[in-house]
Give the backbone structure.
Amino acid sequence: MQEEQPIVDIALHLKNHGIRPSMQRMAIMEYLMGTSTHPSVDVIYSHLLPKMPTLSRTTIYNTLELFREKGAIRVLNLDNKITRYDGKTTEHAHFVCRRCGRIYDVEIPDEIYEQLNKLPDHLVEQTDVNYTGVCAECLGPNVIR
Amino acid sequence: MQEEQPIVDIALHLKNHGIRPSMQRMAIMEYLMGTSTHPSVDVIYSHLLPKMPTLSRTTIYNTLELFREKGAIRVLNLDNKITRYDGKTTEHAHFVCRRCGRIYDVEIPDEIYEQLNKLPDHLVEQTDVNYTGVCAECLGPNVIR
DNA sequence: TTGTAATTTTGTAACGATAACAAATTTGTA
DNA sequence: TACAAATTTGTTATCGTTACAAAATTACAA
């Protein structure tokens, strides 16, 4: 429940990415940066609607596309059904638990990314590492598999 | 243009994965194994229709889902728009060229996969490595970037 | 401050890939 | 041959996303 990130920082964060801040944009970015649940458009919408009753889904789509263009977020392609968004832009991998459905951040050593990115003759701009399996919590002793 | 894979082998290949062979299933698997273009359902449909005029898209969806369940193919989630399918089940990565749109297989050393799969407390069942960037051909000296 | 253009937001409608479903066809086996 | 199971097919429905234009807001010049 990490809330209350200073508004000014969010605005500055957007400006640093060449994005003019607006209430909607700040709200969306604030939510993305304050959660690690990799929410979908619908989850973002449901979360913000109580505080911004006039918010439109289209605005969220537009805003996320803008964020992506400017490199302010990462877009996750994990199941070809729902697009999820990640406010954390530093390099990390994702683990999809097929039991609980959650998506966890996984830190991978820089050396491995360096090795991965050594692709002769190619210009590598992004490297996505996605795991599928069963997470630690679901593997716990009290859980029936 | 690698065609003419012996039908008997395709049937055997399916049986080895617990899949009862049928004309449609063999045609789909034969196409998947004979190409490295990672085709979508529509591409598969267009390719097979001339030889199988009664073929239905639904059959392709059903068949690919069956193949996936049985572990006979890999499903690629690369852009959240179109699902692509890969007949090659041995471990390898994928490179998406943002210029030509092609998807190339990339071989990654086993050691790297071993390192990647060392996730404490997790049961890793699949590891996907997806690159985005510009491919060797598009980086060639005669191509304007 | 006022007017105007540019930007942003919004709601509706359209799109398209996929899934649900039931009927029709084919296959396996008694 | 007969019948049940499996497979294929066409139609319809679903739902995430995009297109589009109008409305609202903001930035800036006079």
